[in-house]
Write a structure and sequence with these properties.
mainly alpha, elongated
Length: 118
């Protein structure tokens, strides 16, 4: 697979675009509630639920936080995991949709043959 194929499967597929749009809306709502509400509560659960299957695995793999880290992993770690999991799931979703349409089969490229003299 080339980089162009990966980008097409992750971002340019209709199913992936809908999925990324829903995640973007969930992140925008969570950010707005965090910034403007006096008590945001568990608002960041919604974006994490959109990335759930892979996010659950990745968030349990990194293990407990280091001693002296305050008992919780950093916000940067949470957001990085969230973004990577959403992009990976978007790629898988795009691959599934394209494979179901039959577009991922390798087709031999034919080059136009030059006219032969004689």
């Amino acid at each position: 697979m080339t980089a162009r194929t990966l980008v097409r499967l992750t971002f340019a597929n209709p199913a992936s675009v809908i999925y990324l749009g829903l995640v973007g809306i969930a992140v925008a709502i969570a950010t707005a509630v965090t910034l403007f509400a006096p008590d945001p509560g568990f608002v960041w659960v919604l974006p994490a639920l959109f990335a759930f299957p892979l996010f659950l695995f990745v968030s349990t793999v990194h293990g407990p936080p280091a001693p002296g880290a305050g008992g919780q992993p950093g916000t940067w770690l949470f957001l990085t995991e969230l973004v990577l999991c959403v992009l990976a799931q978007s790629l898988v979703l795009g691959t599934i949709v394209e494979a179901s349409r039959g577009r991922l089969r390798r087709r031999p490229r034919t080059t136009p043959s030059a006219p032969q003299a004689g």
